[in-house]
Design brief:
- It is a single chain.
- The N and C termini lie far apart (51 Å).
- Among the domains are: 4-171 and 285-304, NAD(P)-binding Rossmann-like Domain (Rossmann fold), CATH 3.40.50.720; 374-403 and 411-433, no CATH class.
- Helix 6 (153-163) links the parallel strand 5 and strand 6.
- The strands form 3 sheets. It has a 6-stranded parallel beta sheet, with helices on both faces. Strands 7, 8, 9 and 10 form a 4-stranded antiparallel beta sheet that branches. Strands 11-12-13 form a 3-stranded antiparallel beta sheet.
- It has 434 residues and is α/β, with parallel strands linked by helices.
- Helix content is 47%, strand content 17%.
- The model has no long low-confidence stretch (mean pLDDT 93).
- It is built from 18 helices and 13 strands.
Length: 434
């Protein structure tokens, strides 16, 4: 069995993800004995920070790993086994720019990284990058697995599968995190005891079954949510659960964007007064706090054991793919009949069994109303991906026309043009001739 692996990180300057994933890798010492950690980022300063922190973490762990840093991903690609995407084209400040442009056109977003014009524009920036990297991997590392953590998950998952031949899956901690919260808060048990089934679109995935120690407890969920107060903490999710008969993940902050009437001021007042638009200042402050943490890691004040597990599931997949010991985890993949009442060519989030032969997604059937919602959103992603890859403005505009958040925009075509103009230097050259 292979025990030496070459890991490649695209967007290594995103130290939140990079250090968490490196910590997870180092904790898997029983089957990941040694290897290489190839850090890639376009920002030299962020790359240097990540490199120093990763080296410090490896030192405190006492493990034997080679660490390299690269401004050009092509230097790091040959022979890679697992490639992580954790990048944001245009860095985090592009997120703030997205929100500001959208707000000028009347579109408020609480997150803006999944759907709405903010999610669309993030896809337009990020899709060409994942396609370019994966096409290079086809040449120099055809057996690699591309593991995507970048948003919008559904669009990027679809882009890699539809436009490249590299093996891939996309991961998000949202649904497992929601299930863990239900276990601890609603049922007062450790998450490992509460099994769940779920399906949908990333950041709008619906939990349809709950089994505690072998017994069906989904029928108890409403009462349990009320007893523990989650009905008040996540009132939108609770209301949608009552309407649709399945519990949405990963919480009101994301879920509300798929049902944009919740963002209207007179509705927020009654439904969720704590819900607010994207807070750029809070994001910047949070990143300052993380920067301080990175500095402590670099100085050895926070070591490998102090850091602990990230809570992400990537190494669970790697373990199962490598050892053949099966695992069951949530992932985002292109629908190929897995969710039977949603079309193919749509990226869906659902549980999959993993072993040495790859991923084997479970068959899921969603309530018809939920399936209809996911179908429209999945078709929107298909238009966005095709538009991003082929630099096709009409497909992007068609996607905006069916996006729920864009219903609040008077002139979607003007909003799209303003977004494209803001990022022209970061987009493929073909956009400059449109």
């Amino acid at each position: 069995m292979k025990t030496n692996f070459k890991f490649m990180f695209i967007g290594a300057g995103s130290t939140t993800f990079t250090l968490g994933l490196v910590s997870d890798i180092l904790h898997e010492g029983d089957f990941i004995k040694t290897g290489e950690l190839r850090l890639v980022d376009l920002d030299p300063e962020a790359l240097e920070d990540a490199y120093d922190a990763v080296c410090a973490m490896i030192k405190t762990a006492g493990r034997d790993f080679k660490v390299t840093k690269h401004l050009d991903f092509k230097e790091a690609a040959p022979g890679a086994d697992f490639v992580f995407f954790t990048f944001v084209t245009g860095r985090y400040m592009s997120w703030k720019t997205d929100i500001e442009i959208c707000e000028r056109h009347g579109v408020t977003q609480t997150v803006g990284d999944t759907i709405g014009p903010g999610g669309l524009m993030r896809a337009v920036r990020n899709v060409p990058v994942v396609v370019e990297v994966c096409r290079e991997l086809e040449k120099v590392s055809p057996e690699a697995w591309a593991i995507n953590y970048s948003n919008p998950e559904g669009a990027l998952a679809l882009a890699i599968e539809a436009y490249t031949d590299i093996r891939t899956f996309s991961l998000c901690h949202g649904t497992p995190g929601t299930a863990a919260t239900l276990a601890r808060r609603a049922f007062n048990v450790e998450p490992g005891r509460l099994r769940y089934n779920a399906g949908g679109i990333n950041h709008l995935t619906w939990i349809t079954e709950l089994v505690l120690d072998g017994a069906d407890v989904f029928w108890q969920l409403k009462d349990k949510l009320i007893e523990c107060g989650l009905d008040k903490e996540e009132p939108i999710s609770f209301e949608l659960f009552e309407i649709y008969g399945a519990y949405p993940a990963p919480g009101d902050w994301h879920v509300n964007e798929f049902f944009p009437h919740y963002l209207r001021e007179n509705v927020k007042k009654y439904k969720n007064p704590n819900l607010h638009g994207f807070d750029a200042a809070a994001m910047i402050e949070n990143r300052k706090g993380w920067k301080d943490r990175v500095e402590k890691i670099k100085r050895g004040e926070i070591g490998f054991e102090d850091y602990g597990s990230s809570g992400e599931t990537a190494t669970h997949f790697i373990r199962a793919l490598t050892t053949g010991v099966p695992a069951l985890e949530m992932c985002n993949v292109q629908n190929k009949g897995y969710i039977e009442n949603i079309s193919g060519e749509i990226a869906v989030e659902l549980p999959a069994y993993i072993d040495e032969f790859g991923l084997h997604p479970k068959k899921v059937r969603l309530p018809d109303a939920i399936a209809a919602k996911c179908e429209t959103l999945g078709r929107e992603y298909k238009l966005i991906v095709d538009g991003a890859v082929n630099c096709d403005r009409n497909k992007l505009l068609a996607a905006m026309m069916i996006d729920p958040l864009c219903a609040n925009c008077d002139f979607p075509e003007k909003l799209l043009d303003d977004l494209l103009a803001a990022y022209l230097p970061l987009l493929p050259d073909a956009w400059k001739h449109k």
